[in-house]
Design a protein that fits this description.
With 563 residues, this protein is an alpha+beta fold. It has 4 domains: 9-136, no CATH class; 139-237, Ankyrin repeat-containing domain (Serine Threonine Protein Phosphatase 5, Tetratricopeptide repeat); 253-380, Nucleoside Triphosphate Pyrophosphohydrolase (Alpha-Beta Complex), CATH 3.90.79; 422-558, Alpha-Beta Complex (Nucleoside Triphosphate Pyrophosphohydrolase). Helix content is 25%, strand content 23%. The protein is built from 15 helices and 24 strands. It has helices at 84-87, 139-154, 157-164, 179-186, 189-197, 212-218, 222-237, 259-266, 307-310, 341-344, 353-356, 362-380, 463-475, 524-531, 547-558, and strands spanning 9-16, 21-27, 42-43, 46-47, 60-65, 70-72, 98-100, 106-109, 115-117, 121-126, 272-277, 280-285, 293-295, 312-318, 327-333, 349-350, 391-394, 399-402, 422-430, 436-441, 453-456, 479-490, 495-504, 518-523. The strands form 6 sheets. Strands 11, 12, 13, 14, 15 and 16 form a 6-stranded mixed β-sheet that branches. Strands 19, 20, 21, 22, 23 and 24 form a 6-stranded mixed β-sheet that branches. The chain has a 5-stranded antiparallel β-sheet with strand order 6-5-2-1-10, with no helix packed on it. Helix 2 (139-154) runs parallel beside helix 4 (179-186) and helix 3 packs parallel to helix 5 (189-197). It is globular. Belongs to the Nudix hydrolase family. NudC subfamily. This is NAD-capped RNA hydrolase NUDT12.
Length: 563
Amino acid sequence: MYSFISKLLIGKIALNSAQRHTVLSLSETKHQQITSYASTLTHRKAKRKIHDPVDCHDIIGIKHYLKLKHNLTKNTVISSTEDPSVAATVSLNISTRVFLLKGSTHLMSKNFKNRYNFDGTAQVSVRNMSGQGNFQDSEDKKQLNQRFLDCAARGDLEDFKVLLGVVDIDIKSDRGWTALMFAARNGHTPIISSLIEKGCDVNCLNASGQTALDIAQFWNYKEAVAILSQHRQLVEFDQIHNYYSLNPLYRASDLRKDPSALETAKKNPSAKFVVFLNSEPYLLESLEKKRKFKFAVFNLDQLPANFSDKTTVIFLGLETWDPDSSPWFAVELRQEDATFTSKYYPDGKFVVPFPTTMQMTATHAGIFAEAHSILCWLDRYKYCPTCGSKQTVAEGGYKQICNNPDCSSHKGVHNTCYPRVDPSLIMLVLSPDKKRCLLGRQKRFPPKMFSCLAGFMEPGESIEDTCRREIEEESGIKVGRVDYHSSQPWPFPATLMLGCIAHARTDTIVIDKDELEEARWFSHSEVAQMLAQLHPDGIFVPPSQAIAHQLIKSWVISHSANL
């Protein structure tokens, strides 16, 4: 992470409402050279970064914008002091920490028992942070989280709203309870409404497998039940969107067959371009709470001249159904053309797709899934699989035409000409009594992670038959009924995961050592603990971005236990 200042400082915060920023003026002995100074604070997943120049002496000014973006330069100082008594205290161990939260005019002490309103100037102490690493993992962050949960439990709406943008909205207590659950337990409907408005996970489970709705129902808070029930119904009525599947673009496939329309779209001033290098996307850090990355989006003027003549360009779609809306393209850059990216987005970087893209904002992850799968297909099939001749890219990247006029691929519809999608089944197996589910682990899994069984479809095989065959081959369990749940594109490079619930007819496990390292039945309560990451043995399931997580979670929710 960042290295922190190695000396203790005392300073002042001066509020200047007219300029909508605050300035922290710090005094230190003259000619003290600060070579690396940084601090972080999370607000709506924005990172607060303070950087100092080399050879900075005397007064250091820190400009605190409302968006929590900071610059440390000499000319940002509004007011300063050179009080010798202040400089003399640099060797003291100052334990008090004061937080200045966005959008508020008060300081909050470390123990959060006192709030200090201020207007003009207030004393602030800055403690030595050397060696503590990421601020988000520090003791202060834990206390922020606890304060957030306590406010939800007490119904303290004023303090709750102050903290709402600072912590993860779905942060859990040691028992796996979220702020929404604490509010539901005590019937605090304003807190519940505020959390739902901010996009909290209403279907989140605690260690007992209960949702906030289950808790509100048990304690008979009818108004809370009505709010939570209405929202859950909206979620269930809507279509299920697993991670990588929430692509906001209208693909406009009819435009792909019109080369002139595509050329016009590329030159559209509103056209947007996302870029790749060796199939690695160029990403920026995101301000969204749970997702760290998003695409760096370029316009035509920012791209290299005649880029489409030298690179692979694919048409992703339009922003809306309106044919005049902005077209989106993905560009596979050449190494020599990739340097322009840092000119416009100096904080961006090309990243290894997996697992980094599992931390993207949901809509950009959907765009990535489309772009990456097509670019990988074009890269791997530059030569005709039928005759070996060179191919020409057509239809905005969605078709390749063999340059050999005598090739048999020109006759009929062949999957060598179009992007391939590989269907794969992933199954949650329920025991005959429906009280347990079967989970397994492969040797390549992280230690203590268990997941659903999975396998690829074979030619001439149905979804149901694939489930039954794969489950019996891997675990020895015989399956009867198979229910479809949902699907997930897995763009590494082009797999479609078909999620199913399989109902076992037997329960004796005989694993295939070549497929699985271990497989076992887990009870409902155990799985709830695994989802909440509170299993006593440290066993856990894949993250929420994986369809396996959603299959497991759906079973726990549907069989939620009473308090």
